[in-house]
# Entry
Amino acid sequence: MSRQIVTILQLYPRDMNIYGDYGNALVLLRRLQWYGYDARLIAYNPGDVFPSDVDIIIGGGGQDSGQDKIQADLLSIGPRLKKLADEDVPMLMICGLYQLFGKFFETSAGEVLEGIGLLNVETYGKSERLIGNIILESEEFGLIYGYENHSGQTYLGKLVKPLGQVRMGAGNNSTDNFEGARYRNVIGSYLHGSLLPKNPQIADFLIETAVTKKYGSFSDDVIDDSFAFRARKAAAKRPR
Ligand code: GLN
# Structure
């Protein structure tokens, strides 16, 4: 029997892909293979044709200048992304793309970069940078370990759930203790590091959601996550 295909789309890897974000793509690819699927990774950069068959969409962070470069293209595919989100396609957007999946990012220079508004959040550039290791606690995913580096501070709109509560570090902003945002199967977060190697429970949420949606059931293989557990243990001991 030919293996079931699962396609991951990485948005703007040329401009939005820092602090290890590509690791998230590698983790999804490898775990899908371990579960027995034929995993494929497609890059989408400005001007590309948006692929018709996509199962998981991921995107990373970038400098303000990188966000500037991809913003017009992102707005042009925004309706497509919103439709896919409403069809429950799982997505993971980190830092710079998390900000642009929100309503807008107002840079510290006062420039307003309009976002696609898929997440009801707003971001304001500040002079202080929020940098360091970060730990969250989440009802859905338990403890989440990562690394943050951003000057944009994000505020959740009404009824928007965060990804988690900050236990160490800053998160969305320096005041309210929330980190990230959730909408249907979309996760926005500031956590680089990269996120998925140390948080396989989030990788499996994306994978299982995508596969069940497409094929109706999910592999019952169990992956040996002892290395990931050791990485989590080490991350838990790191100072801010
Ligand atoms: N330029 C944005 C900020 O500093 C995003 C940074 C990032 O993606 N790491 O807020």
Observations:
- The chain is about 30% helix and 30% strand.
- The chain has one domain: 5-236.
- The helical segments are 22-34, 64-86, 95-101, 195-198, 200-215, 226-237.
- Residues 18, 61-64, 67, 95-96, 149-152 surround glutamine (CB under 6 Å).
